[in-house]
Amino acid sequence: MSSDLPDNPDDTEAPAANVEHVRIEDEMEQSYIDYAMSVIAGRALPDVRDGLKPVHRRILYAMSELGVTAGSAHRKSSSIVGETMGDYHPHGDSAIYDTLVRMAQDFSLRYPLVDGQGNFGSMDGDPAAAMRYTEARMAPIAEELLEDIEKDTVDFQSNYDDRLSEPEVLPAKVPNLLLNGSSGIAVGMSTNVPPHNLGEVVDATVHLIDNPDCGVDDLMTHIKGPDFPTGANIVGKDAIYSAYATGRGRVRMRAEYDIERNESGRDRIVITEIPYQENKARMVERIAEDVNEGVIEGVSDLRDESDRDGVRIVIDLKRSANVDVVENKLLESHLESTFGVINLALVDGQPRVLTLKETLEEYVKHRKEVVRRRSEHDLEEARDRAHILEGRLEAVDYAEEIVNLITESADREQAQQALEGDLDLDTVEGATFEYPDVQSSFDFSEEQAEHILRMQLGSLTSMEAGEIEDEYEEVQERIDYLESVLASEEKLLSVIKEELQELKAEYDDDRRTSILEADGQVTHEDLIPEEDCLVVITEQDYIKRMPVSNFDPQGRAGKGIIGSDPKEGDRVSKVFRANSHDYLLCFTTHGQVYQLKTYEIPEMGRTARGKSAVNLIDLDDGEEITAVVNTDEFEEDECITLVTRQGYVKRTCTTEFANVLSTGIIAASLNEGDELVDVEVTDGTGDLVIATEQGMTIRFDETEVREMGRTARGVRGVDLREGDHAAAMVATDDADERSLLTVTRNGFGKRTPLSEYRRQSRYGMGLVDIKTDERNGPVATAKAVTETDDIVVMSENGQIMRCPVGEISTVGRNTKGVIVMDVTEDDRVASVTVVPAVTPDD
Questions:
Q1: 215 part of a folded domain
Q2: Tens digits of per-residue pLDDT, 57-106?
Q3: Does one domain contain both 830 and 717?
Q4: 133 is catalytic
Q5: Is residue 726 part of a domain?
Q6: In a domain, 272, yes or no
Q7: Torsion of CA 388, 389, 390, 391, to 10 degrees
């Protein structure tokens, strides 16, 4: 049996000796790092020196090589894309064209690098026309990025197939990274550099050159902040300073708008500039959706009147609308957005987050290298030209002798040898020419001799000689100047400053984005009228609020009016009263508690469904809000008292609810199948009354329930009959002159003075409160009311009725009650809340 294994295990020539053992996690880590760095350096991140990613750089260089400059005719975009893809960027043509399109959009780049002709997209998100229909050429400012590239100012590298060479970076006479910004997502990192105003960046760069030790504060006297191509406003300077000082920050952008009066005397909001990178059509669509859903009320018409001259979005308001409230609603949801600044760029091939000063320092460092290499190149060319001119001047002095020398030479090669002094004419047969007495022979260099041989006889005139002398003096001055630039860093920096000032004179324009002070700004809460609201919640967690004043009191036994329009399969589960400025604790059936500001709940009309509550609080599947407590009512030594469906009661100090997380916190631990049904704020001095679905009530001293932690289950408060469940809870005391209002699912109810409910020990069966026969149905809820209160009854199908409590007569316990709300056969009472009665002044 043959074997490929070596006879000698130590034989280093054996194939196995070349196998390297590597841990797979180490190899995967290194391979991933290599891949990540390839994406970072080769695609996603800009170079700090020219502010370009490879694809941008290759497109501009390809256009330069094609001669598609600012002074040339436009060229088909497909031609430019094809040249770029074939010679420099071996990726998909769509990616290259998308980049070309963006470089031509004046709403994407502050200073577009491509002059496009045709449809290059719009602020509405419309795509550009196909590349075969559009044409492009370089914008004038793009030529500044490529200027002097032919003078060995930057290093070149081989293209992807080693046929051609491409620049590693452009000379970048303009500080493009700050001017046009950049955005990109790499592996594990991203960049988002905002655009700036050219004049401000030039002034800051010059200031940095003159004052290398300056700080961000000094630079911000010149650069006020980002300057977006779409204009609009930046709110607050602190965020700008943070972004410039650390390289990261969040800048709040706000649309530019005015409040006008139309011909009929009504207010209108006219938007003329929108935040950077905002899709205008989508913004208008979202505003329209909120208007239709009742989130924004008071809008009568919405039009997009934008044209090529600029943005104009008109929002007409109803005569009764509060323009301040509408304005702030728009600001909260549509007219403001955030630009997350991440000033990440490649420095020496490595990604770095840079401050404003570091970004400018890297640019100045690059320009110093470019100017130095350009000066060296120009100096070498000037010296070569001076050398040629020296030969021409000598040839003019000995014009006759040189002419004779050339005419008597057998051929051009012999004449060149004679001019270089490498040939003795005395040894040449038939030659009669003699060198002038001043020298034994000419001693021109090879370059000078070749140039003299190419000279025309007209160049030997005295006028031509004078021009040569003038040019020679100019070249000598140029040599002296270039040598001084290379010998002095101060002189070199002065060249950079002069060129920057020339750029400013050529391309500077007015700032488009204004900076607004954030101090003293009016908050949304300040503009929301302080009023009592009804908050409606459905089983599928749709939520909305409506002013209580929208509902006039009706007589008892009415059908009510539409208060909500739940979608098919959904039902209203809760209605409660809250002030628009209240901070609420929302308790759910799962025993969780969330914090919510009433004005954060969208205000909508009666027929609106509402907004999904998951946009406001993080509810789990099947979790419903069952009780709400106003935190403004909290005082020291008070407790949150809860009752569950299985009759458990617990008290927890309000201090334990001081810091409620956005994801909620535990209010009570529940048994499997149990739910939280009601919550009260108590002070430990009164009694608790628990009502059950089968019409029983029990009253006991609150102190029979000791204080517990949030995660406790509680103790039994009522001994429930089989099939019975707790429905509601009321806190009372001996001096309480209120009545207990009990309302059943079928719309019947009654009032009984709380004094008729005697105190018992906790965990008893209690007393009969109301009969829950087939007519009445089970108890829906129980509330403590006074003669001057109103109640708002809401049905599962969304009917709502406001009724004075006085309309419901006071009767004893153990009665059937009277009809409170006339509900249909397929409907049931969902919830009841107590509101202040309407006074004559209202």
A1: no
A2: 999 999 999 999 999 999 999 999 999 999 999 988 999 999 999 999 99
A3: yes
A4: yes
A5: yes
A6: yes
A7: 60
